[in-house]
Amino acid sequence: MAKKIVKEKKERIRSRKSGVAAKKESKWNFPLGKKNMIYTLIGIGVILLGYALMATGMTEEAAIVDGTWNNPLAISVAPMLLVIGYCVIIPFAILKYFKKEEKTEA
Q: Which end of the chain is more exposed for a tag (fewer CB within 10 A), N or C?
């Protein structure tokens, strides 16, 4: 009789565990939404533009005879674009939380 009671308790525990495991199963959603991806792509575009402008300063002569650089875009604008892209836009895109809009059925 005691063995039968112990056996029933073990079966109840097994059934609870399997039921809990089934309930805990949830669908994983990617944490970054559509707006985050748009900002990330904008940041990548700004970074690529910065590198493209920096590449325009590459010539056979690095500097003119009087010591100034050939292209001011490669000296001033390109590094600013890179800093803005890497340090402002990309972190903003990752860290900003946009509330997800709930779809309502009409």
A: C
